[in-house]
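Cross-check.
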Amino acid sequence: MITPAASELSQEWVTKTELMTYVRCPYTYSLLHRGELDPADLFDDFILDLIAQGQEFHDRVDAMAPTIELTSVEELDELLAQGTIILHPPLLFNVELKIYGMPDGIDPQGGALWPIEYKSHKDVQPHDEIELAFYWLLLAPRRTKGTDDPRGLMVLRRDGEPYPVEVAIPPHRIAQVTSYLALVRQARITPMEPRLCRCHVCTGVRRDEVLQSVTARRHVSLLFGVGREYEKALSDLGVHDYLDLLEWDPGALAAALRQAGLRRCSPSMAERWQHHARAYREGSAQFFGAPPPVGDGFIVLDLEYLTQPFGERVWLAGTVVAKGFGPPLVHQLWADDTDADEQSLLEDLGRLLDTHPQLPIVTWAGRGADLPATRRAAGRLGTKDPLAGRNHCDLYVWAQRSFRLPASGLGLKGLAEYFAFPRNSNVTGGMEAQGLYLRMRDESGRSRQDTKQQLLDYNRDDLDSTLALTRELKALASPQENR
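Predicted model, tokenized:
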């Protein structure tokens, strides 16, 4: 095996890290490659904590396996031929594809050479498949059989312990990686323009610059539901400006996108994009569905809970009881990290809701978050689910189907910002809130109380925003009801 010279590696060669940086955000990769972004700005503190936890898990898995010291690539080939599983192989190269790197390990599999990757999450993610596909291609020059059935091994973390999972690498992932390699190299030559993206760079470090650029270009990523795949397909059809969408018949656009491989695209989806484009063009809300199914009385609900890989625990339930124009009644139920506390929280929440049986519960995205969280918690603890059988309105689901604003996305915090609802907490989101809760378990005294108050304030902000947004949307939609 010929090892490329260092000068060659700086030109066309691509690593897995570079590939995945591009996959997550081409604009970020472009900035990094041109030296216009400090690598330290890639992640916020919470993600850095996750990375540290992942490294800790990685080290623990390593400690459970026998150590094999390799002095050369030739020695690697000999051990693989003997059927020895290798962890931390030396730097490997695929000269034809001009890629290089080191998988976490290699399982010989009789010459098939399955790449091994450690991940500290519970289930295989799409990005995991892309990484395995990269390493499958990296190992191709050394493979002696099994090329028609690409596979790899993921060592995941389940219940805190390593859990190996065999992963079939779909053919489209192999094709994706090959395509991405060309795009990475192109991004080194041609600076990438930004699109709306949820990465830390686009939402934080370069937020104002990104918003200014996409707004000036009327970029289609401003439209709710237009992700990168749809954006590319629309671009291939000549739709670069969201106002271009208004020239299309929705049925014809959906058919063209399905022909391009986006099978889930429907005329109604294209119509919703057009409604959003009109909201931008006219600078006003566009209602195209039924009005919010909420009267003057309702209960706003917002939960905070742990998700994998951090555990399972509903630790804060906030409610606001709103009746007409009277003062809202706020309740926040807290649970420390014990089963007994969590069960008390669920029972107290059930009793609180029972005192207002006629009022519907209003959440923002609760169907996919809050309701499953209490259902799982009740099942774990063997107690009654306080939300089961309640009259529930998920305003986020309604919003997806019924209205658009001249603003990107339908996230609660983004809409609160659009309507200028005050928010006092400096906690950026649910993931950071989980991190604070986990940290609080090791705190005591004033420090613990301060962290707890931070989390209560964060939950109260979401309650207040949901309450204000419910009333605002009802008022905006009221002319629709009179038509």
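The mean pLDDT is 90. Residues 297-481 form a domain with the Nucleotidyltransferase; domain 5 fold (CATH 3.30.420.10). Passed to J.P. for a second look.
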